[in-house]
Amino acid sequence: MVDGGGPAAAGTGTPGLLRGRVHAGDDGTAVTRVELFFDLFFVYAFLEVSRLMAADFSLTGLYQGTLLVLLLWRAWTSCSWLGNTVRMDQGIMTPVVCGLCVVVLLMAVTVPTAFTDEPGLLTGPLVIAVGFILVRGTAQLLFGAVIRRTERERVSIGRLWTPLVCASLFLLAGALVPPRLPEGVDPDLVRLVLVTAAVTSDFGTLRAINGRSRRIHSVRHWTDRHALIILVALGETIISVGTSLGFEGTARITVPVIAASMLGMVVVAILWWSYFDVAKPVAERALHDAGPVEQTLTGRDAYSLWHLPMISGLILLAMGLKQSVRTTAAEDVHPWRGIGALVLFGGVLLYLVGLVGFQRRVLRIWGRGPLLGAAATLLVLPLAALTPPLGSLALLTLTMTVMVVADQTVFRQRHRVLHELADESLAGEAGATPKELFVDLVFVFVFIQVVVLMGREGTWHGMFRALLVLGLVWWAWCTYSSVTNSVRSEASFLRITLLTILGIALVLGIALPQTFTTIPGGLPGSVVVAVCYVAIRLLLVALLCWRGGIDPRVFRRTVVTMIVAGALLGGAAVVGDRPDTAATATIVTALWAGALATEMVGNYQPGPVSWQMNSIEHWTERFELIMLIAFGQVIVAIGLSVDWQELSAGVLAAVALSALGLAALWWAYFDTDVIVTQRSMRRRKGGDRAALARDAYVYLHFPMVCGLLVYAFGLRTNLMVLSSDPYDSTLLGHVALYGGVAIFLVANQLFWWRSCRQVSRYRVGWVVTVLGLALVTYPLPELVDLALLSLTGLLFTVVETFTGRERRRLRARPTTAAG
Questions:
Q1: pLDDT score recorded for residue 6
Q2: Which of 45, 189, 242, 401 has the fewest beta carbons closer than 10 A?
Q3: Alpha-carbon gap, residue 528 to 247, rounded angstroms
Q4: What is the C-alpha to C-alpha distance for residues 66 and 347, in angstroms, rounded to an integer?
Q5: Which residues of 275-290 are buried (b: 16+ CB within 10 A; e: fewer)?
Q6: Cα torsion at 318, 324, 329, 331 (round to 10°)?
Q7: What stretches in the chain show pLDDT beneath 50?
């Protein structure tokens, strides 16, 4: 599903200014890593939209959120068309995409004030308008510049500018006109009308797309890109469920809260299944078999248009789930108030309607399962409105379950035929499967909660303990990745087990900020986390037994280390219930450290028996994706740090600098290292390959993830005090900011050395510079700190890009041996 990168041919007919700097895509092009990085910023943007609607839980707030979703969707689809035409990871496109990432993040952090007037020049409506124009305009400009066709086709492409120009003028008017209206005229209503006109105008661009103005160059890229944005929206829904009680980690954890969260997860899982089980692969096959013009028209209608109600439905569902879990936590046994039930059930209904339209447009069939689910949702809605939120969630879960059962029984004949087509389409896929990516989504939330735990503790000791918790979570994920690399199956037992792991991991994430504390009246966080961890490990052992063929030595060692680690965690939970003293805290920390050491040291087995893999591509892609998840957590941390702060040039500059610094770290890992290491894996055999898989991925990726999360904590600590006067920086936040970057870079260099046996003088210089800056910049304001750190990263990135000949040579070297 992810393109590994590599050389690409220059775009045919590219103008002289861009010739050699922009490369054309082809029929085999897959989604590139830089596009996945770009999509992470939309995760946070969609999250902010759902939070905006939840904060103003009314019809007006719902309509405002809908307009923002439509604007964000058009910004995203314009870039998806561009990415299908040119290689986004080649030439000048990578820095262009990184610049657009900054723009999208600035739009996202201003979502809470998108329809309000703030004093000063940088108002929320203006930032949203300018950001939208930059993203849409850049994509449209590059698309027109790199495509040189007949005069008739150029005219057709030129017509796509008219709706965009009109939409831009309406958006600018919506930002600038309302504050200047005379008294007696409602500025909010005028702004809503102008933004509505902008959205209506811009959607005219989609209808203007035809076989002359656009063409789908890679069906695989097109379908995977939209499938991944559906996953992004599902991930945003999972985060909304997990953070329903806020990002502070101080709310009580109760059985009803866990029950509501689990029911919400089941609903999300069923919606995931309704798209990825057969609809996505069969639609991809049908699109591939269509002619060029029909591909473009179907791609426009089925993907750019019919995926929109699915995305919108998931965002509404996220808001409804958040409200239901929040109300359940407040122990409110009364029926829904206002539009709560309508939003919850309406989100599911809208998603299913979009799915029905998608299937009808591509496959020319009416999806019986989604139609039944939509009808049942409408039927149950009046009863749900009279039921407390927890009961409504149970009714919704039951309704969705009926849809699944109907597909497996009443509609089983058609479902079996479609499944055979889907299996043929998926045959030969060696990368991560959709079900694995879906389980990974919960780890975005778990990583967020690790940073929340760091913030709750607020001490050096607390940061260390948070990293211990992260270590056990990391070990569970690595074991899960190893099992799924060996077990390549779509059996029902595997699916049910993975879904169970997903639910348990969600509960673990909810309780994680209270691992070392207990809120009066709530469940003990330490017990919940320990039980969840042991349960996940037991399920993974069950999968190993179900697979069969496991080496007895590996099995015995796995079981022994799991039992010892579980006993240590149980002891930590017992000791943690005693009065909170320094001695108690030290013992608990020692027990957690012992549990982590037991897992990571006890399972460090020499020889080829422990970390064998069936697919190198799958193994490396899994770790690349978990790194992307860690980068996504940093993005969320940046946004939440300035959440609801007063907009100012300083705040927006800090956000932009943080995004640029993160882009430099992303480049340090994804530009060359992952490609060269994957090739090194292919060249090795037997024990050498297993040892490289263990060392470079399991053990050296962990400190890289630690560095990113510590960096996220440092960003959060420093960005949250930007509005303070005088500056209120802390030594812990300062050290975390610079130390997180240094930890990541040192681990990244070790990763490079383990695979190539080389030392990069650029990375060493980058680490030394960061450590030197950390010593001298503490007295400086936070904005200066961020500027120095981010600009240092960009400087070393540029220097290495243009002068690092050896790394470029290794990156371009073709693979000489197959895995």
A1: 47
A2: 189
A3: 18
A4: 12
A5: bbbbbbbbbbbbbbeb
A6: 180
A7: 6-13, 16-17, 150-151, 608, 725-728, 814-819
The answer to whether the beta carbons of residues 167 and 199 sit under 8 Å apart is yes
Give, rounded to a whole angstrom, the gap between the first and last alpha carbons of the chain: 18
Per-residue HEC secondary structure of 153-167 comes to HHHHHHCCHHHHHHH
Residue 635 · residue 662 · CB < 8 Å: yes
Count of residues in the chain: 819
Q: Which two tokens stand for residue 279?
A: 């609809």
Q: How far is CA 7 from the centre of its chain?
A: 27
What gap in Å lies between CA 811 and CA 813, rounded to an integer? Answer: 6
**Are 350 and 312 within 8 A, CB to CB?**
yes
- Do 260 and 503 form a contact (C-beta atoms < 8 A)? no
The CA angle 177-180-182, to the nearest 5 degrees, is 120
- Nearest CA-CA partner of 704 in 801, 804, 634: 634
**Rounded to an integer, what distance in angstroms lies between the CA atom of residue 700 and that of residue 696?**
5
Within 13 Å and on the Cβ side, how many CA atoms surround 591?
22
Kindly report the backbone phi and psi dihedral angles of residue 648, in degrees, each rounded to the nearest multiple of 5, phi listed first. Answer: -155, 165
45 closest CA partner among 500, 632, 474, 517: 632
* Helices first, then strands: H and E counts in the chain: 31, 0
- Kindly provide the residue ranges of all beta strands, DSSP E only, lying in 267-373, ordered along the sequence: none
Which stretches within 671-803 are classed as H helix? 673-683, 686-692, 701-719, 731-756, 761-776, 782-803
Structure tokens at 425: 């389409």
SS3 2: strand
The confidence score (pLDDT) of residue 10 equals 38
Q: How far is Cα 140 from Cα 122, in angstroms, rounded to an integer?
A: 25
Cβ(510)–Cβ(531) below 8 Å: no
**Helix, strand, coil percentages in the chain from 3-state DSSP, rounded to 5:** 75, 0, 25
Q: How far apart are CA 557 and CA 605, in angstroms?
A: 9
Phi, psi of 30 (to 5 degrees): -110, 175
State the Cα–Cα distance between residues 470 and 748, nearest whole angstrom.
Answer: 18
Please give the backbone phi and psi of residue 22, each rounded to the nearest 5 degrees, phi first: -125, 130
Give 645's DSSP letter. P
Determine the residue type at 157: I
**Residue 521 buriedness (CB in 10 A; 0-12 / 13-18 / 19+):** exposed
Of 375, 373, 321, 327, the C-alpha closest to 343 is 321
Question: Rounded to the nearest 5 degrees, what angle is found at the Cα of 183, between the Cα atoms of 177 and 184?
Answer: 105
Query: What are the tokens at 310?
Result: 């699915």
* Contact predicate 57/29, CB 8 Å: no
State the Cα–Cα distance between residues 652 and 102, nearest whole angstrom. 10
SS3 at position 184: coil
Burial of 151 (0-12, 13-18, 19+ CB in 10 A): exposed
Residue 9, pLDDT score? 39
pTM of the predicted structure, to 2 decimals: 0.90
Residue 521 pLDDT: 81
Task: Supply φ then ψ for residue 333, to 5 degrees.
Answer: -95, 10
**Residue 816 pLDDT:** 39
Cis-peptide into 726, omega within 30 deg: yes
Q: CB-based contacts of 592: which residues, under 8 Å, 6+ apart?
A: 465, 468, 469, 472, 568, 569, 572
**CB-based contact 610:554 (threshold 8 Å):** yes
Q: Which amino acid, 707?
A: G
- Using the 8-state DSSP alphabet, how is residue 252 labeled? -
What is the C-alpha separation between 540 and 649, in angstroms, rounded? 50
Nearest to 719 by CA among 648, 813, 802: 648
Each residue's pLDDT tens digit, 307-361: 999 999 999 999 889 888 888 877 655 566 667 888 899 999 999 999 999 999 9
